[in-house]
Amino acid sequence: xxxALRNFLTTLRRYKASSLLNIVGLTLAFTACYIILVQVRxxxxxxxxxxxxxxIYLIETTDWYTPGLWQAxxxxxMSERLIASTSAVEAGGCTWSGxxxxxxxxxxxxxxxxxxxxxxxxxISLSLLDVFDFKxxxxxxxxxxxxxxxxxSRSTAEQLGVGVGDMIWCDTEQPSAENAYEVVAVFEDxxxxxxLADCKMAMDLGDRMLDDPSEWSYNYFIRLHPGADPRTVIxxxxxxxxxxxxxxxxxxxxxxxxxxxxxxVRDLYFESDGRVPCVxxxxxxxxxxxxxxxxxxxxxxxxxVNFFFALVPVRIRTVNTFKVFGAPNASLRFSxxxxxxxxxVIALLLAWYLAFAIQSTELASYISAPLNLTQNLPxxxxxxxxxxxxxxxxxLYPAWYITSFPPAMVVKGSFSGTTGGRRLRxxxxxxxxxxSLGLIIATGFILLQHNFLLRQDMGFDRxxxxxxxxxxxxxxxxxxxxxxxxxxxxxxxxxxxxxRLVGVNRMSWGRNYKERRISVQAYIVRWxxxxxxxxxxxxxxxxxxxxxxxxTGMLICNEAAHREYEFELGxxxxxxxxxxxxxxxxxxxxxxxxxxxxIPFVFxxxxxxxxxNAGGRASQLLYLRYRPEADVKGVxxxxxxxxxxxxxxxxxxxxxxxxxxxxxxxxxxxxxxxATVVGLFTLLSVVIALMGVFGIVLFETQHRRREVAVRKVxxxxxxxxxxxxxxxxxxxxxxxxxxxxxxxxxxxxxxxASFAYRVPIHWWVFAAALVAVLLVTIGTVTFCSWRTAxxxxxxxxxxx
Length: 800
Known about the structure:
Elements: H1 2-14, H2 16-44, E1 56-62, E2 70-71, H3 76-85, E3 89-96, E4 100-108, E5 113-124, E6 136-139, E7 149-153, H4 154-160, E8 167-170, E9 181-187, E10 201-204, E11 218-224, H5 230-244, E12 260-264, E13 274-275, H6 283-324, H7 329-358, H8 377-402, H9 419-455, E14 465-469, H10 472-476, H11 478-486, E15 491-497, E16 508-512, E17 517-524, H12 529-533, E18 537-540, E19 554-558, H13 559-565, E20 582-586, E21 601-605, H14 608-613, E22 621-626, H15 632-646, E23 658-659, H16 660-665, H17 669-703, H18 705-713, H19 718-752, H20 763-790, H21 793-799
Parallel strand pairs: 2-13, 5-10, 7-9, 17-21, 19-20
Antiparallel strand pairs: 1-2, 1-11, 1-12, 3-11, 4-5, 4-8, 6-9, 7-10, 8-9, 14-22, 14-23, 15-22, 16-17, 18-20, 19-21
Helix pairs in contact: 1-7, 2-6, 2-7, 2-8, 2-17, 3-5, 6-8, 6-9, 6-17, 7-8, 9-17, 9-19, 9-20, 11-15, 17-20, 18-21, 19-20
């Protein structure tokens, strides 16, 4: 062991550059692989850590807008009837639009006031407590049935500093005894990679909308009895559905298609054909990340193998000298393997330290999973096995080869000069170049597609817009706030809406229109919204300010809805008031991210009194357009000041103002993260590949010093010597490009097919990738061989 350790340290000192390159390359590869495997494990186990997750199902119905797709928003009457009448169901319950941001107030007696906290909360039916495993830490979770009660998670209780029996206030600016909630139980936090990760506080939904079949805003989950067949639930649902909607059944009273399906919560994360109330990922993206991790490891492994094979010719004389003095083959081979294991152990330790350091950087925001080792022991074990296997595979053959022949034969040749050795190194480097070129091409198109989505004309004016989410009090004082803002010459116009203009999910209506069932997405706005956003009216009229003071709401549909359902002006489509008429038709525009096509949509102006009774619903999100020459920061500061004066509970510093482009960016988080992650690992793969080139060229220049000296004596110039070294690698890059280009083209086309709007396949991306790799490779080879090409031939011959 002492001899092996001494030889290992000697190798590190003697071959500093190559050893350092290998350690750095392995460290970067292990770090990247660890981060990716942690994220992949987080995604593959999503919801699977929930107790009895294999028996818990989400009820989904056919999507109203896109044939072949499914959605998980249901009405309560039909769902509750199904749960009550199906023996296979052990328990069933619902949430109302999931769990969203909540401002919590807690009384602070010492300050004679209240402390504010931001967390997440939602309303659930009491029966949901029996579907999922709400573990009580203190109190009894079933006490939630008491009026004005609330249950909170352990982490939230610690954050707020409250316990069972304490009072808190949610989303109110005027705390009182009437709107206080009593904490009746504290439950254990749910896993972060589960659909209940944001369940920090829960309130009883009660009998809200229990008898209203038109409100489809509830997500229903059921737990089946062990061994129960989900198909029995589907058959029961079909019976209930046919009874409630007889017009959709055939003459025998049966439905010809399945209106519902059950999706196990274990499969929701990767569900590709439905809209579900939890975080979703892409199986293709996850496998892509896993593939990148394996490729990065493969690239580092190739460098590792090349390092040990390159060491064979320069160490063969030393090793066989040991044999002359009686060293056994087993000891010499063990020393070689020990060096390989030592290198990977050093790289592993550095990689885990680097992963720990990354947790406090911006890069950590692109990873959903925690990176600490204690929470990812299976990944640590897998990486350790990979590292040991790499060390053994890379070192066993060179160790056997270098000790396989008599010492007297050492002077007859070297492994580096054999055809097999050269072919092996060429093949391995070619694989590295192929992977690097493919990743560069893919990264180029991912970045182009992301920029294309952000810059594509969406059918409305996106310029010079900023947005802010208003508090309840500010939303109720919208009119005075708008007048104050319009008094500033930097402000062009101000309008309001109930939420973001661009988003995947919003309020959906199912209505009966002229004996036909229709489905549209509805968006509540202020009267001047279309005018300010530059959305043209193609038929009828725009909203008027007087529309907000009428007893019924007013509707404007897009052309897609007009074509699909043949709406006529003046028809009562039926909003909240039941008699809301259609007053206009506007052009089609992209109100969903550019991955999606345009579907039927209506703008809805509701009566002012209705909006005020709902906490200023039509003004919850404020849009402001400023003049092009205005100072954006100055306008934002003025907007904060005006909002703070409208709602004295707020300070300007806590009001978040965003430009519309920043708001739009949120809709492309997945694409942005994918572009960033793939871009980083592409850069890493290129660096690792170039490290391999650097190391191989260093050894090659040492082996060919005598050849270079002879060529220079025969009249070769330095430029010709450099061309000699570069020619082989240039050919290798071109051949690798010929392989990488069609493969990456096929992958890119498949990925772009998932977008409704996509960037063209530009030829220059392929050319740029080839030129970039060629230039960097030529620079690396030239840098490594420059010294040898300029050496005095006499010095080279003497040293040889």
